[in-house]
Specification:
The chain has 192 residues and is an alpha+beta fold. It is 19% helix and 44% strand.
Length: 192
């Protein structure tokens, strides 16, 4: 297993459900992560949801809901986060300001369906081609985030691949910068 520190994003379309009952109009249950493989520049990436793999402390203590991962567009808070099966789940509550209310209405009407998570990975399990992961569930080649931490969840407007049922947020140059820096470091170490 190798240690790594970077921020990544993933998104899931249609992973939002209203919380029923009077007084819960601003609350929704979401699924923000899964073990669905995602193709990164280094190969397939999987977020483990095994016991102890996901550190939900930050989401449960100070978790916020953003719009399109924009830290200047806080639209709500995470009330609680948990792992259920092989999925990260949360109950969120939208704020009452004008912009947050506009996004909440779009979510309630089904116009906005995508949820994305920004996370950092502390430790990877590298599974070579033809091998099986230590938990026996994944075939290589793949990289499995076996220690990772969600940093925030976002309602997103444009998942990159909504046609296959599990979409991904389009990566920006800023998000890719840490990957390029890591790759340059790997190349420097290789050439040294």
């Amino acid at each position: 297993m190798k240690q790594a520190k970077n921020n990544n994003t993933r998104s899931l379309p249609g992973a939002i459900r209203a919380v029923e009952g009077e007084g819960n109009e601003r609350k929704f249950q979401i699924s923000f992560s899964s073990e669905e493989p995602y193709e990164r520049w280094f190969g397939p990436e999987i977020l483990s949801h095994d016991a102890g793999a996901v550190d939900l402390t930050r989401l449960n203590d100070i978790g916020v809901v953003l719009f399109n991962h924009d830290t200047d567009k806080v639209i709500g808070r995470v009330l609680r986060a948990w792992v259920e099966g092989e999925r990260g789940c949360a109950e969120i509550e939208f704020d009452e300001d004008e912009f947050s209310e506009m996004i909440r209405q779009k979510v309630a009407k089904g116009t906005l369906k995508g949820i994305s998570v920004r996370y950092s990975v502390g430790c990877w399990e590298e599974v070579k081609a033809g091998n099986t992961s230590s938990n026996g569930r994944h075939k290589g080649p793949c990289s499995i985030a076996v220690k990772w931490k969600p940093l925030e969840v976002s309602v997103v407007s444009v998942p990159a691949d909504a046609t296959v049922g599990v979409g991904r947020e389009l990566e920006t140059e800023e998000n890719n910068a840490s990957f390029w820096e890591m790759q340059v470091t790997v190349n420097r170490n290789y050439l040294a």
